[in-house]
Amino acid sequence: MGIVVQKYGGSSLADADAIKRVARRIVEIKKAGNDVVVAVSAMGDTTDDLYDLANGVSPLPPAREMDMLLTAGERISMALVAMAISDLGYTARSFTGSQAGVITDAVHGKAKIIDVTPGRITEALGEGHIVIVAGFQGVSADTKEITTLGRGGTDTTAVALAAALEADVCEIYTDVDGVFTADPRIVPSARKLDRVSYEEMLELAACGAKILHLRCVEYGRRYGIPIHVRSSFSRLEGTWVVDDPARDETAQGETVEQPIIAGVAHDRSEAKITVVGVPDKVGEAARIFEALADAQINLDMIVQNVSAAATSLTDISFTLPRSDGQTAMTALARIQAEVGYDKLLYDDKIGKISLIGAGMRSHPGITSKFFAAIASAGVNIEMISTSEIRISVIVDEKDVDDAVRSTHTAFDLDADEVEAVVYGGTGR
Amino acid sequence: MGIVVQKYGGSSLADADAIKRVARRIVEIKKAGNDVVVAVSAMGDTTDDLYDLANGVSPLPPAREMDMLLTAGERISMALVAMAISDLGYTARSFTGSQAGVITDAVHGKAKIIDVTPGRITEALGEGHIVIVAGFQGVSADTKEITTLGRGGTDTTAVALAAALEADVCEIYTDVDGVFTADPRIVPSARKLDRVSYEEMLELAACGAKILHLRCVEYGRRYGIPIHVRSSFSRLEGTWVVDDPARDETAQGETVEQPIIAGVAHDRSEAKITVVGVPDKVGEAARIFEALADAQINLDMIVQNVSAAATSLTDISFTLPRSDGQTAMTALARIQAEVGYDKLLYDDKIGKISLIGAGMRSHPGITSKFFAAIASAGVNIEMISTSEIRISVIVDEKDVDDAVRSTHTAFDLDADEVEAVVYGGTGR
After folding, report:
1. What are the chain B neighbours of A59 within 8 Å (beta carbons)?
2. Residue-wise pLDDT tens digits, A64-73
3. pLDDT of A219-235, one tens digit each?
4. How far is CA A359 from the centre of its chain?
5. Mind listing the domains of chain A with CATH numbers?
6. Is A174 among the annotated ligand-binding positions?
7. Contacts of residue B76 in chain A, CB cutoff 8 Å?
8. What gap in Å lies between CA A418 and CA A382, rounded to an integer?
9. Where are the alpha helices (DSSP H) in A45-62?
């Protein structure tokens, strides 16, 4: 008898019927002889409704009270799931993040879990109950304040509980069948991955695949928790995120030990800023990035051209979240005289395409094949960045779909048949 | 600088505008140099909405989970009130019942407060914050489970906090101007009472006046907390519930030391059961009331006719909440053979009229004047019960309004001018 931790997002808990369906699914696992712990998000649009309420009373609500407000959402859904389970003849106990021992730092709105002390959960399991835990929330270690973990936080709650309870598996239920080789809305022939490594999943999540929260994957990797991403609307096996992904190799068109490519991700949420005519002296670039760091801006890709010897001037380009674009431009404008650059260019009509696969480490020629695929789609590459298991390029936003499709085909990722899915984000 | 505890019900927190109005009111008290602690109910219809959600997933939800669900309502409203206060330039900290130290027994759905340990409240007040507390809820002493106090519980939360904090006053804000000599919907000339004693208020609450929760008044009396019942929609002084009510005597048409009558209450929520032909032997009546007690039924008035010597049979009548009628009839039917009574009569078309006043203790003739007033309205009295400061009669339900009006006039309670109010219940 093992412990199974499950997570259900808001779309899986949209109304009474959905909650009853989830309850039946939970009871099945219990019937099979497992202890079951379930992390739930708020129902459907509850979080948006609560945001609307807050905006109705204050344009800039204090973060502490915002957390107090938003955590009501999971409180409602967890109680309803527990009721639906009891209606099936099983007993359930719901616990808030605080009661479940989810201890965080004190950063309201984006707290990080620093410990899980699941004494009450273990006790309830020992008494034969199914345990339902409010996702997305915790309590701060020192100040005992209610905190929230930010968007996608319930994924992280589930994996953190799985780690603390030494669960056999953490099942993340969502509204798609698993992790795909590309966004099926763009590439209808995208295939569901049976297995993917933590590293690849981290790169996929960081590069725009919204299926799993980044911190959830980090947590899973650190504690070695197998994460099973699957649909709450079907009975299909989903995608296993594990340490050693023995993916079905023939489907990849490869017969080597490790398949090369996990998938093609894309991201339309970034903007590009170019600082033109920066004096090519020691410390100038540092001054620019210092100013951006002071403004709390996370940069993604950074490219510096080699300076033409004649001018001793260089251009520095970088990408960042579009939502930070205005802040970054203001911060840079403030240091123009000091740095002595020529001008700033801002472009938010860009997209990022990323090719991800642990196997590319030992396979030369991946980069050239990737660039050739993009060129064959008639798409121009504006910036390039690489990691051990990822190559990313920036292209014109309008060219994203073509570039993704061409790449997907070039690496033999297309399925024989189109799998009918809708690719969407998870709740919180 | 004193401590003021306020309570706002759901009708005072119906929407964003109402919440902002409440916030301004709270800030005024703070500005005047007081420490302010506010207990809030759930917004408007939130509680009903949560009940609907629960019924959607389970016909008989477990009480523990029902409490978990319902307490989300106050969590939402307290966070919103705190936000609205911060928008006015003041700082507020909201606390759940558990965080506020409201310790209860473990009876879900109708828990009783057994202690208040307001350490976090005192600390927050010391830091200059306004404190908002979720009403209606607490945490059980031993099991650390979330509990609710039942309908009207937020009144009790407020008074309990006032007692624990040794507050100067507990202000109960509602949607009427105070406590009236009768329900103004029935008696348009009813007057607002400036002051009323705890004892009288207890009798009024027990006899159908829905303005204050019974347990709230009991708590106030035990700890000597002055309770000020007033409207959140006006600036008028309301009704003070205090130990020694120096009511305005002339308005009562009396010039004695203490006015005789506080008001006339009525109640249409009871039913009457008559057990006909009970053998007039020792123990038979006890067996009947034992069966009712076993069925957890609270009886109100009880009347036993003197038996006719010829038959040695007696009739026993009692009143009880209509909602318990079916349960009581079933319990009694089960013991018919054992007790040997003749038959049961059930009547849920009754009403109770109660005349309440601490002064009636020392005034003979009140009873006869009361009965005469009812007779003059052409109304027949079916049952009578009295206490030190109350006389209650049971009449036909259709005669309730006439009997109340006639009594109100007979005791000179009518105001010279009709005060424009709508008399309604408080939230929870």
Report:
1. 87
2. 999 999 999 9
3. 999 999 999 999 988 89
4. 22
5. 3-175 (3.40.1160.10), 248-419 (3.30.2130.10)
6. yes
7. 50, 53, 69, 72
8. 32
9. 46-57
